[in-house]
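Worked problem 6 (solution included).
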Amino acid sequence: MAKQPRLAAGRARALGLPTRGTTNPNRLRRVDRWMVGSAAVRRALCSNADALLVDLGYGATPVTTVEMAARLRVVRPDLRMVGLELDPERVAAAEHAADPPLLTFRRGGFELAGLRPVLVRAFNVLRQYSEADALQAWDGLRGRLTPGGLLVEGTCDEIGRRCCWVLLDETGPLTFTIACKPSDIATPSDVAERLPKALIHRNVPGERVHDLLLALDDGWATAAPYAPFGPRARWVETCRLLAERGWPVLDDRRRWRLGEITFPWSAVAPVEVG
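Solution. The predicted structure is:
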C-alpha cells in the first residue's frame, strides 16, 4: 500500500508537502485557455448552481490564481475562486489580491480545506511525489469534488511553453493533453520532461506514452516540408498525420494551431503488469 502523504503541521491538518513555490505571470495560460475551450469544463461550470473553483498549490505569489479566475469568468461570470497553499506565509502574502467572496485564499492541501469544488486545477504539485502517492492523491482529490466535478492535474516548465495535463472526473482519468509553443521544441518528445507524475516514469519501451511520443516525433519528421511555413504549421501537420495514422486524436485543427493535442486517457494509460 502506498504511504499516505504526510500532514503539514498546524491546526488545519492540511494534507501534502510544500512545493518550491515557483511561479510566473502567464505560466499557466495554456491550460487556462484549454479549460475555457473544453466542452467538459464548460459543461461542469455551467451545470452547477455554485461554480466553486480551487487552484491547488498556487506558489509563492497568487498571480496564476488571479489569471485563472479572470479567464474562466468568460465561461461563468459568477464563479468563486479559492487559492490553496500549505504555507501560511504564502496565504498571507496573497491577501492583497483577494476580492471576497469571488476570490479568496486559504491554507489547504489535498483535503481542499473541506471544500467541494466543481473544478480543481493542480499544476506542478505532484512532481515531488512517487507515482504511487501521486495516484493516491488523484483518488483523494476526485473524492472531494462536487458531483459532476473535474480535476485538471499536470506539469509545465517555468514559463509555460511545454505542458502536459490530465483531465479527471469522479470515475478516473478521461483525457491527456500536450500543449507547447512549437517554436520552442526541437522534437515533440521534448515535452517528456513535463509529463505528469502518473506518466513520467512510463516513458520507456513497452508503454503507451512512449509509443505516442515516438509517433509524434515521427510525424514531426514527416512534416519537415512544412517547416518553411513556420513551426506552428509543422505542428498542425504532425497532429493531422497522427490522426490519419489511427491515433485517437480528440481535437481538431483549431486546437492544433494553439500547439495542443488531446487523446483519450486509454491511449497513454500505463500498462499493467501481471
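Discussion: The chain has nine helices and eight strands.
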